[in-house]
Amino acid sequence: MIKSDATLRRLPVGAEVQAGGGVHFRLWAPESERVEVVPEAGGETRLASEPGGYFSGLAGAAAAGTRYRYRLDGRLLPDLASRSQPRGPHGPSQVVDPSCFRWTDAAWRGPASTGRVIYEMHVGTFTKEGTWEAASRELPALAALGATVIELMPVADFCGSFGWGYDGVSLYAPTHLYGKPDDLRLFVDRAHAAGLAVILDVVYNHVGPDGNYFKSYSPDYFSKRYENEWGEPINFDGARAAPVREFFVANAGYWVDEFHMDGLRLDATSQVFDASPVHVLAEIAQHVRESACGRSTLVIAENEPQDTALLRAATAGGYGMDALWNDDFHHAARVAVTGRDEAYYSDYRGTPQELVSCAKRGFLYQGQRSAWQGKRRGTPTFGLPSSVFVNYLQNHDQVANSACGLRLHESTDPGRYRAITALLLLMPGMPLLFQGQEFAASAPFLFFADHRPELAAKVREGRAQFLSQFPRVATPEVRARLPDPCDARTFARCKLDLGERERHPEAYALHRDLLALRREDAAFGDDAAIDGAVLGAEAFALRFGAGKEGDRLLVVNLGRDRDLVPAPEPLLAPPPAMHWETLWSSEDPRYGGGGTPAPESDDGWRIPGHCAVVLAPRGDA
Prior knowledge:
alpha/beta, Immunoglobulin-like, TIM Barrel, 3 domains, eight-stranded parallel β-barrel, 31 strands
């Protein structure tokens, strides 16, 4: 708790209900001379100035539910730290008392340290209703699938009636589009009851263009020292940076404290610039853990340059993150099963060696030159456990980075798709599924953003320009048919049909059974000990475990049937006095496959094409 004006506060800024009555307001507006709280119902209160540009005061007549604005030198503005914007970012702020919600998760201790399987969710498209209440009804099904962590795409309030959430501007207010703040609390409470952790994707590298009132409070919220790909960079290390850092660091803890989030996914951390002795990202990671009050947490970063310093402990000069997204695996796997290597995929060949190296080393680029970027990319992963890498075949960005938002199963043939799914869900690391992936969703996932006309025109142009890096999309006939990101019909097309769980039983069974195998077979897991070998132009093997009973061999062939006669590869040898038997196959008819003859016989090895097979040792008769 923070003490200000003899008042106990949870956060450094914002409106907070006091136990003795009234609401305490505090904000940072260093250029202002006179600041008042102006409730919609009347009865404004002038706030007293504090050192450092803060203003604060108690409004005795205000209470939970009061709608208000601040008046800064005559200009009415919403609260930057508003906990609720019931009419969106341009409307009045609303006082919220988080203590009114009755949690039932006192026994919840946070995400487990092992066996984590992430499920990325966009609440607005996860169900037809697009609400917290509707999404919460599906939590038992996600737990039954084998997911353990829900990763919510950003929910900070943004303008318009639909969007991805990465243009949030009211960073403390869960978007009004999905329900009330307590609806989000109930979603998290129900997730914990189902055994699911919940982490939130947050954006600390920029704020959105519409509803952005930060400069009205102070231009020092932004920096002129750096260039940002998506807007003005946040000022974490310049003049008056301390209150800015405080605002964002407190926001990270706020989601963990008041909403019982189990951690965060930090968007585009390469665009968070800070030359301070302690980087703000390290401060955020530490504050998340402190705010959890003993519960375990999970802090994941997206970092395109693949800087493993984010994973190193703070005592070793690192930032203390728990995991990083691994684009290298996605790119290599996608090239392997589609044969397409345009744009940023041009740094990959999709070879068996790339996939083996991902399984063993995490990142492929650890300081080599990227031809696509024209510079060196990545840092070494030596000494890091496999569990720090979040691997995926689909996520919101990668599905949408195509002309039609196609899912991967629509871009390759069924056999290859089943085989690469087996690799994802059995290899070391932390697997991530994107919503609907588990049942081969027919709904695309496209970029969508609802903006006023002048911004909408820029969004359309910008999206078309971004996709033009792919030569297939850059053709006139394709560009003319790109979905309009600002059209409500584009958003509606992306809503999942959850009935496809039952109508696509083969795909659902594939994911459910693989996750059960990963969970129940001791050979597999986040940090499984493995070795790997290339068996052909499109075939490879991973050997799991070293114990006689624990050995498992995963053979993946993304090409045609392959005979290995002879087979001079030591990883194919079973333990002494044993032979290999098929434990699981992606070509099982339950998954829509055509069956799998035993790969090993007295005549040698025959590896079926477009297939992944798990082999277990059995004693010779």
